[in-house]
């Protein structure tokens, strides 16, 4: 099974850094290793199927927070263990986050990101991974596939088989809506679902009915029997995470993760504030 490490609330401002520690039963001393000076969002995944985690960085458009006009927007990956740098794609990458998932079912992790097309319209693309135990592949080897137009600001992207047809789907979260892209035989259909504002998303089968549900900041949307046409019923987890009304842009900013933490066979949900202090990891 492909493994991806999700990094909770990581912003790299100047250096791409990896930390690890020697075995210790007492105090843990971390050593910092600078890999590169790129500024972007990272994920860890085994990109070439060698059993080790590589680093993928989304060097994205961010004219508000990052004033460096020399940045070349792109997707890049760093190969373990020497961290050699390889290009997946260059282009006007958009969105706060991206994701890694096996879109075409070949056992390799692909990269999924928003990107402005030559027309200036934002689309969602998946970049097909050409690697199989290999370490060298430049941008010309990764084929870009257009999933569809995305007319919302991208806060989160996740992938999974939402409609249970055996093929990976892609879900893109905006501030107050999500766009669901359903894959069937290399074609994509899209629908839009409205919901409370801000950010944070993951997928898991919370009601144990056999399909993936959409988990957002303090609530989840139950996937209907017909995911393309049916209504997504909203269920509250903790309203603290979607009812913040201080007037700040930081209200309801969240990072969402789902996993069976206590190993009881039922998915659990982890929530953390992604922009503010004073909120516990829940």
Mean pLDDT: 88
Number of helices: 0
Q: How far apart lie the N and C ends?
A: 28 Å
So what's the overall shape? globular
Give me the strand/helix succession: EEEEEEEEEEEEEEEEEEEEE
Poorly predicted tracts of residues: 1-18
Structural class: mainly beta
| Main sheet record | 5 strands, antiparallel
Strand content: 35-45%
According to DSSP, the number of beta strands is 21
Describe the structure.
It is a single chain. The chain has strands at residues 4-5, 16-20, 31-36, 41-45, 54-59, 74-79, 84-90, 92-101, 110-116, 122-128, 143-149, 156-160, 169-173, 177-184, 187-194, 202-204, 213-216, 219-222, 233-236, 254-259, 268-273. Strands 1-4-5-6-7 form a 5-stranded antiparallel sheet, with no helix packed on it. It has a 4-stranded antiparallel sheet with strand order 8-9-10-11, with no helix packed on it. It is built from no helices and 21 strands. A hairpin with an 8-residue loop joins strand 12 and strand 13. With 282 residues, it is mostly beta strands.
Chain-wise SSE layout:
Elements: E1 4-5, E2 16-20, E3 31-36, E4 41-45, E5 54-59, E6 74-79, E7 84-90, E8 92-101, E9 110-116, E10 122-128, E11 143-149, E12 156-160, E13 169-173, E14 177-184, E15 187-194, E16 202-204, E17 213-216, E18 219-222, E19 233-236, E20 254-259, E21 268-273
Antiparallel strand pairs: 1-4, 2-3, 4-5, 5-6, 6-7, 8-9, 9-10, 10-11, 12-13, 13-14, 14-15, 16-17, 17-18, 18-19, 20-21
């Amino acid at each position: 099974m492909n493994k991806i490490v999700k990094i909770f609330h990581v912003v790299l401002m100047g250096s791409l850094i990896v930390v690890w520690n020697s075995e210790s039963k007492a105090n843990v001393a971390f050593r910092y290793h600078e890999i590169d000076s790129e500024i972007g969002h990272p994920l860890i995944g085994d990109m070439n199927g060698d059993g080790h985690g590589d680093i993928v960085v989304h060097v994205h458009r961010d004219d508000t927070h990052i004033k460096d006009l020399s940045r070349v927007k792109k997707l890049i990956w760093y190969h373990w263990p020497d961290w050699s740098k390889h290009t997946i794609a260059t282009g006007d990458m958009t969105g706060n986050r991206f994701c890694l998932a096996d879109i075409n079912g070949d056992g390799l992790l692909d990269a999924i990101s928003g990107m402005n097309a030559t027309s200036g319209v934002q689309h969602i693309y998946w970049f097909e991974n050409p690697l199989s135990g290999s370490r060298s592949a430049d941008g010309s080897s990764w084929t870009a596939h257009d999933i569809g137009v995305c007319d919302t600001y991208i806060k989160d992207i996740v992938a999974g088989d939402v409609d249970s047809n055996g093929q990976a789907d892609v879900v893109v979260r905006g501030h107050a809506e999500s766009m669901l892209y359903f894959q069937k035989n290399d074609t994509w259909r899209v629908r839009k679902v409205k919901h409370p504002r801000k950010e944070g998303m993951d997928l898991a089968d919370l009601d144990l009915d056999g399909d993936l549900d959409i988990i957002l900041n303090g609530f989840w949307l139950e996937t209907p029997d017909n995911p393309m046409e049916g209504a997504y019923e909203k269920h509250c987890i903790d309203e603290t995470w979607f009812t913040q009304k201080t007037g700040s842009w930081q209200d309801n900013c969240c990072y969402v993760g789902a996993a069976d933490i206590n190993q009881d066979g039922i998915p659990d949900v982890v929530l953390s504030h992604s922009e503010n202090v004073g909120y516990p990891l829940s």
